[in-house]
Amino acid sequence: MDTAIIRRYLQPSPTLRWHPWAPLFFALLLLAFVFYLGAQWGFSAGNRLAGEMMVTLPAGDIFFRAEEARIAPARAMIRDAQKLDAVVRAFIARQRNAPGVLRQWSDRAQSVIFFRGHDLAGPPREYVVKLAESRLSEYSAANPRWQATSALCSEAQPPRLVNVIEEYRGVAADYSQLLGRTIRAEDLAPAVPGGQCVF
């Protein structure tokens, strides 16, 4: 194709008031505007749903926790402890698998665009350490209330031999790494006599 024809096409016609590319430019501008409005509408609906969930979910959680504490107090206490364990284990897993530079940039961009700058890298170390210390003082052998977990074997009936101490070896290793001191699996595991449930 002759370059003179292309140049002539790109030049505004003396008889037209608009440049030939103006409709395409305005179509793209309209598309961006519609996309922006759709995104805002979606974010607004998501925020409304999240607000409803923030009201409903805690109430349901309180109800189910109260029911579980009434029916199976050992399991209820262990489940609370496991929630704290999950935060510690996720933190240590993130430390082991540090994201690359591209993932870090992606996380920063997502946090700015979608979450108003909130960090996506998880809670800070100080917060996780506080949770870990709380777990060790409130939900472990160091607290007399933890003796209630000795009834675990009578509440749960899995058809197998359960070594509760072995199930907490990895958890204890993560606590030890986080806190910089040795945490034994026996300190975190339910206070089951002999460390095993036999069925």
Please give a structural write-up.
- With 199 residues, the chain is mostly helical.
- It has 2 domains: 1-71; 73-199, no CATH class.
- It has 9 helices and 2 strands; from the N terminus they run ααααααβαααβ.
- A two-stranded antiparallel sheet has the order 1-2.
- Helix 2 packs antiparallel against helix 3, helix 3 packs antiparallel against helix 5 (125-138) and helix 3 (73-96) packs across helix 8.
- It is elongated and about 95 Å long.
- The N and C termini lie far apart (85 Å).
- The mean pLDDT is 82.
In round numbers, the mean pLDDT is: 82
* H/E element sequence: HHHHHHEHHHE
Query: How much helix, percentage-wise, in residues?
Result: 55-70%
Strand arrangement, major sheet? 1-2
Q: Got a strand count? A: 2
Approximately what portion of the residues adopt beta-strand conformation?
A: under 5%
Q: Low-confidence runs (pLDDT<50, min 5 residues)?
A: none
Number of helices: 9
Overall tally of structural domains: 2
Report the span from N to C terminus: 85 Å
Largest sheet geometry: 2 strands, antiparallel
Shape: elongated
**Based on helices, strands and strand pairing, what is the structural class?**
mainly alpha
